[in-house]
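Have a close read of this protein, sequence plus structure tokens, and explain what the tokens say about the fold. Thanks in advance:
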Amino acid sequence: MEFDPSDVDLFAETFRATVIPKLETLPGLARASLLIDRDRGRGLVATVFTDRESLAASRGGQAASRHEGAAKAHVTVTGLEEFEVVFSDNGASEASG
């Protein structure tokens, strides 16, 4: 995502107050994070779901949250990608999308 660096606090607050509550209603959501580069006006929102089926079912809800949040925060969405995330926790490996 890209935004005017002067809107960084608006972006962060919109994510916290508007986007997160909507994402939390999506079944299977494990985590949502906002990463920002304040100086360059760039950001990344990452959502992790417990399984591939939850990810697929969330696409409409995520799109609605993304459009509403981007409009409120004066953010331009420049790309959307999906990845499989593999991690190890306490020695047990899990995969999620």
